[in-house]
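Structure ticket #2291
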Amino acid sequence: MPDGMSSEWRRFKTNSEAIDYLRGLPRYRNSSVKSALSRANVFMRLSYYRLTHQSHPLFVVLVVNNHCDLTCDYCYGDYGNRHGQEYKDYSTAQLLELIDELWRLGTRLLTIHGGEAMLRKDIGEIINYCKLKGFYVSFNTNGFQVAKRIEEIRGVDTLVVSLDGREANNDKHRGAGNFATAVEAIRAGVAAQIPSVISATLTRDNMQDMEYLAELARSLGVRVQYSILYNPEEAAVHDMLMSSEETRRTAQKVLDLKHKGFPVYYSDNVLNTTIHWPGNHDRKYAKADPSWDKTKFEPVPCYHGILKYQIDADGRVVECWATDWDHAPNIKTLGVEGALNKCHDDKKCYHCSLLANNEHNAMMHMSPRTLLNVLRIQVADALKIGFARKNYKGTEAAQPAALTAADKAKLELQAFAEGRIPTTETETRALLRSGHKVSEAKTVEHSVIESK
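Resolution: structure written out below.
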């Protein structure tokens, strides 16, 4: 930030001083009601910005460090290989100042990202500060130390763990042992009553693992989302890059899984956009093409660089990771507001086929179908906070308490919110997720996880 620290944070000369201050703040205790209010605040802000045609950084992906314990082959930021003074991480006080400035500018949904954010010793205090301030916080991780330090991140509204497929296919690109680490992190998140998501990057090596991931997600009581590679032009990903036809077939498989009732995150139109995308999937458009067949998909307008931004740990502000230019405006030279405004003014891309981007675009476009899908997810996830399986190791709790009438009502409401009819099978799955013993049931988890 060009003008140095604001007066409020300038008094902290070291990270230790800033962390000591943060440790003196009240501890945020998340709950279904609190998380629901945070989620509702995002939607109210979104509605206001859209109705008044305002551009604000409502949704920001904030990369809090330049480093990662993994060296994934396809990493768009190459965080496992960032070295040198140019990649010096934000100090604790600098990060707090940045967070304050984002709040002032209108950010209400903050995704804390890395690198690997768990490498920051102050990450728990940063999360606590963000929640006390009022942000909806999503936390992305590869699972590193999550199980050991779960109390530090318990306040987040969503935990997103990277996991690409079966153990061999996942560890091929992410590193030996990562599959086990990721699964342990997801189980820890569920046990800590944090709504959790498996995030898979699609490649030729794991495109046959879509159903496996959907089964795994359902067995663990979490959702699953799939992402297309952001950097198809990089030589390092050439051999693992799916062809456009393979991408279409894989997206169709994901859509079929969703229609079968698996906990897939995406809306139908978002998946159909990828399935019926004209031409190569790395192609982006400044405007809709009149030749597009809108009976098959409705092109989703892009709100990245309008309502959503990514801020890298090196200070660059980009619309999304597919436009991760080296010359992107930087908060270190332009300030936070100046870099965001420059990113907005430089925007050129308005349509693409990237699944994760389009799900957020469709929400920000306020498509009725997408809003209904998002509403179901948000209600169901808010209900999970304070009501989830306690024992993530997979062993059954001894003599679990009987379900109360309130518990049963909450299970039925959660099933409805997830778009399911609360049948006996559904209730059984929910009982297993919440840690109750159901002797006649055998979950997919036992066959997928414990057979290794």
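Closing remark: The first strand starts at residue 59 and ends at 63.
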